[in-house]
Structure formats: structure tokens, C-alpha cells
Specification:
Layout: E1 5-8, H1 24-37, E2 41-45, H2 51-60, E3 69-75, H3 87-94, E4 99-105, H4 108-115, H5 119-134, E5 139-145, H6 147-153, H7 155-167, E6 172-177, H8 184-197, E7 202-206, H9 213-222, E8 227-230, H10 244-254, H11 262-265, H12 268-278, E9 296-297, H13 300-308, E10 326-327, H14 335-344, H15 355-369, H16 377-387, E11 396-405, E12 414-423, E13 426-434, H17 437-449, E14 460-468, E15 479-486, E16 491-498, H18 501-519
Parallel strand pairs: 1-2, 1-8, 2-3, 3-4, 4-5, 5-6, 6-7, 7-8, 9-10
Antiparallel strand pairs: 11-12, 12-13, 14-15, 15-16
Helix pairs in contact: 1-2, 1-12, 5-7, 6-7, 8-9, 9-10, 16-18, 17-18
Length: about 525
């Protein structure tokens, strides 16, 4: 079984999507999840391009990856400088990643109009950059930008750029359909020719402007490519990149290539929804393999058939990718997901208990209200524990009040929260200020509880997201609040939903505190 390397570029290409902006903490969380998933390479960004990427690489060095190799991305050195002098090359080296990916021009049109250098000088830029980095970095990949367009326009020159990269010591040449306009037939024939012409691995990096990125990636592998680049959920500039959520099961389950383990691919849906939630986007219900509708059946002949033999209207077993079958008229599914979560949470619970069905029912009701538990698994674990009597109430809220006051134009508003609660019958009444009403409530809650539970001093609020759930009704819309918290050892996500953003935030904050206290 031929091995295919998967290279994820969600943290760079995916971050170029319209409406997507990852914080450093977002990127670190996605990095950890992709590593757990078993991705071979994770491209973290472009060091030196912005302060966020510089901080990310600094923080990422503190994370010991189990399965993945972190890659830094950059361009060939400037024509006016040597590789050693170029600040962008120095930034790549300062990232201290085991892999560096360099993109270079392969289309003579771009050499002339974008770089504005001679074709010979462009070959020198490619060779000099890769040879310089290869002496200092264990693995250097070459992204041959616009290669398919370049090959059609000036085949001889496009191939010379690959030869320059290969002779400089590149470990892999990645053929890029940067404008996304090449169709599968051309991808296949060109990849086959390059595989036959070079003795180093050939990869594919496809964009989706013609809705062919997944097909192009798969046909490239069938044509001999052994390295595939893409993003989770197809995030990316313009129409996006090749969607690894479709590419991976296509290679693994359909074509039987060795690209991910059987156990890891069962986390495909979880990974897809996790990244969507962190990106603060709506889940695409009809996404192949992992969407809610991917294995949903509604009425008539289809339902009758799949209840006898699912294969009649399902191209794979949904559990292979962590999804499940849904019969919309009676909704028979969901139990398997809960029993798997019980196992994941290491809870000593009988998965055959009738209370599992109760949890499934409650989850469906909560999801109908707007709750989502991807990226908020601490709230899900608390829900399961409450149902099975494994939860302890650490405090009772008597009430809280929030004041947000703006005294004059141009000044930052002043936020103060007052809270009353009881712990083991003892009343605690405290107040605290904060940077906004939610931060003030968070500070007041901690201030009230820390004398009883000093371990809360270690808890930090790492991230806070709000999503409007009901469009078209303005400021009265229902919102979902997702909070990421952490201590010195762990991170966890919690969720709240309400028409009142303060109440939704309170729900998520309380779950965060209770989760910490239950963990000890």
C-alpha cells in the first residue's frame, strides 16, 4: 500500500479565507487537534509576515507534537539581496521548524510581471534559496507556484524551475494549481510526466476555483504524486483550497492508500466541526462525509431501503468517518456518538444505560435551541455527568448585576459586576471591575469563589467568541457564546446560548468553573 503524505495549510492558506481570522490561541488549538488527528505536516504560517505568525511559532515550539511536523512557509529571497541577507529568510530560520516550504515562480508570465526579473535570475533565486536553507533545515519543500499554468504557457521553462529546485536539494516538489483553473485531465497528464522526470517525491497543491480541487488532488495521487496539500473544510482564499475532509477519505477508504490510520479517520467529523467552530463559521450541513446531511434520509423508498441495508443509499459506512445515519422523520441516530464520548471522557458509565437515550434527546433539544458542543466538550462532559449523577453543585447563584457606564465621549466604558452566591450555606457578596461586562462578571465570580476553591487562581480565560444564531431580528437575536479556558495543564471549551449575551456568557463561565472544580 503506497504511503501518501498529508500536508495541512489551514493555518496559512485557510486563514486567508474571507470572514476567517485566527488568533494565536486559535492556531495553537488547531495545531494540537491536527497533530492528534495524525496529519503528517502542519504549515503554521509565514514567519516575519506579521506579529501574529511570529508569536505563533514562538508558542508552538513549546508544544511537543506526537504525529506531525511543523512547517514554516516563505518565498524565495529578494533579487536585490542574497539568501543570507534577506530578512524573510532569517525569519524562516528563526521559527526553528523541522520543515520549511518555499514557493517560487514557475510561470514565465509571473517572472516577468510580478517579480520583474529575468528568467535566469528567477532560476537562481530558487536554487540559492533552497540550497541555503537545506544546509540549515532538515527538510525543505518547494511549492512550484502556478506550475500548471506555467507548464501550458512555457513548458520548457516551467520544468527548468523544478530542475533548479531539485538540484538545490529540495526534498519534495509540490505542483501548485494556484489559480484553480486546471481540470483533472490536464492535472493527471502533467503530474505523470513530472513523476517520471524526477527522482524525488512529487506533490499537489490545488485551489478550488473550478470546483475541481478535490478531484485534482485525487487524480494527482493516482498519477503518481505522493504528497497532498489542502485545508480542513476547504478553507482558503477566493473559492478555497482542496478540502482534506474529502481528500483523506477518498484516498484512504476508496483507493486504499496509506495516508491515515483507521482509528484516526474516525475523528474526521470531529476535526471538521472543531475547525469550523474555531473559525466562527456555520457548519456546512451538506459537506460530503462529515456534514449533518451527508447520511441523512427523508421518507419514502430511501428510508425503507436503508433500514434494511444502509449500503442501498450510502456510499460508505458513516461511522468510518465519525458520522452517523439519520432518518429525518423519526431521527433514530445519535446514541453511538454519546457512547463514544463517554469512552473518550473516561467516565465509568454503562454505555447501554437507558440514560444514554435521555442524553441524546436532551442534546437534540439543546441543539435546536442553538447549542453546539464542538469546541465546547467540557459543557458536554458536564451534561453527561449531570444525567448520570456524577456532578456536584459547588455553589448556588443568588443573583448578579452588571453596570456598563460611559461617562463621556471618547472614554472607554466602565464595567462593574456585583454577584451574590452561596457555598455550603455561606453567603458571598462581591464586586469586581473588568474590561467589558463579561470580563467583569468573570472577575467577580472568581473573586467570590477563590477563597473557597483556591485552585481557581490557576484558571485563565483564553478566548471568547460570540455568534449570532437568528438572522433578521437585529439586536434581539439569540447568540451562542463559546469560551476557551485553561490552567497550567489543560484547556477546555464551554458554551452558552441566550437572547441575552450576558446570560449566555454566564452559562459558559459557570460551566468552565465547574469543569475545573470537578477535575480537581
Amino acid at each position: 500500500m503506497r504511503k501518501i503524505e498529508i500536508y495541512d495549510t489551514t493555518l496559512r492558506d485557510g486563514a486567508q479565507s474571507e470572514d476567517v481570522s485566527f488568533s494565536v490561541e486559535d492556531k495553537l488549538r488547531i495545531l494540537q487537534r491536527l497533530d492528534d488527528f495524525g496529519i503528517h505536516y502542519i504549515e503554521g504560517g509565514w514567519p516575519g509576515a506579521n506579529p501574529k505568525d511570529a508569536e505563533f511559532f514562538e508558542q508552538a515550539r513549546k508544544h511537543k507534537l506526537k504525529n506531525s511536523r511543523l512547517a514554516a512557509f516563505g518565498a524565495t529571497h529578494r533579487a536585490s539581496l542574497s539568501a543570507a541577507e534577506d530578512p524573510s529568510i532569517k525569519a524562516l530560520l528563526s521559527a526553528k521548524t523541522p520543515v520549511v516550504t518555499i514557493f517560487g515562480k514557475t510561470w514565465d508570465f509571473h517572472v516577468r510581471e510580478a517579480l520583474r526579473v529575468s528568467k535566469q535570475r528567477n532560476l537562481e533565486l530558487i536554487f540559492n534559496t533552497i540550497s541555503y536553507l537545506k544546509k540549515r533545515v532538515p527538510q525543505v519543500l518547494f511549492d512550484a507556484e502556478h506550475f500548471f499554468d506555467g507548464c501550458k504557457a512555457n513548458r520548457e521553462y516551467a520544468i527548468k524551475t523544478l530542475e533548479a529546485a531539485a538540484s538545490a536539494g529540495a526534498d519534495c516538489i509540490v505542483l501548485c494549481d494556484t489559480n484553480g483553473g486546471t481540470l483533472p485531465g490536464d492535472i493527471g497528464s502533467i503530474v505523470r510526466e513530472m513523476v517520471d522526470s524526477f527522482n524525488i517525491p512529487i506533490g499537489i497543491h490545488a485551489h478550488n476555483d473550478s470546483e475541481c480541487a478535490v478531484a485534482n488532488s485525487i487524480i494527482a495521487v493516482e498519477s503518481g504524486a505522493s504528497h497532498v496539500q489542502g485545508t480542513i473544510n476547504g478553507l482558503g482564499e477566493r473559492c478555497g483550497n482542496a478540502n482534506l475532509i474529502s481528500v483523506i477519505p477518498g484516498l484512504k477508504l476508496k483507493l486504499k492508500y496509506n495516508c491515515i490510520t483507521n482509528s484516526k479517520i474516525k475523528k474526521l467529523k470531529d476535526v471538521s466541526r472543531f475547525v469550523t467552530e474555531i473559525a466562527n463559521l456555520r457548519h456546512f450541513k451538506r459537506q460530503p462525509y462529515t456534514g449533518e446531511s451527508a447520511f441523512a434520509h427523508k421518507g419514502g423508498i430511501h428510508v425503507s431501503a436503508i433500514l434494511r441495508h444502509p449500503e442501498t443509499y450510502e456510499h460508505i459506512r458513516p461511522d468510518l468517518v465519525g458520522n452517523f445515519q439519520r432518518v429525518l422523520v423519526s431521527d433514530l441516530s445519535g446514541r453511538g456518538n454519546i457512547t463514544r464520548k463517554i469512552k473518550d471522557f473516561k467516565l465509568k458509565i454503562d454505555p447501554d444505560s437507558p440514560k444514554v437515550a435521555q442524553i441524546v434527546k436532551e442534546l437534540k433539544e439543546l441543539e435546536n435551541q442553538g447549542f453546539q458542543f464542538e469546541g465546547a466538550e467540557a459543557s458536554l462532559e458536564l451534561l453527561i455527568k449531570k444525567t448520570f449523577g456524577l456532578h456536584r453543585k459547588f455553589f448556588e447563584l443568588t443573583g448578579f448585576r452588571v453596570i456598563d457606564e460611559k461617562r463621556r465621549e471618547g472614554e472607554t466604558p466602565y464595567s462593574e459586576a456585583t454577584i451574590m452566591l452561596t457555598v455550603d450555606g455561606k453567603l458571598e457578596h462581591t464586586a469586581a471591575t473588568g474590561n467589558g461586562p463579561v470580563n467583569a462578571i468573570d472577575n467577580a465570580l472568581r473573586k467570590a469563589l477563590e477563597k473557597f476553591y483556591p485552585q481557581l487562581k490557576d484558571v485563565r480565560l483564553l478566548d471568547y467568541k460570540v455568534r449570532v444564531l437568528t438572522a433578521g431580528i437585529g439586536t434581539s437575536a439569540k447568540v451562542r457564546v463559546l469560551i476557551e479556558s485553561g490552567d497550567s495543564l489543560h484547556k477546555w471549551g464551554t458554551v452558552g446560548v441566550s437572547e441575552n449575551i450576558i446570560e449566555a456568557s454566564w452559562q459558559a463561565l459557570v460551566d468552565s468553573i465547574e469543569y475545573k472544580l470537578l477535575r480537581g
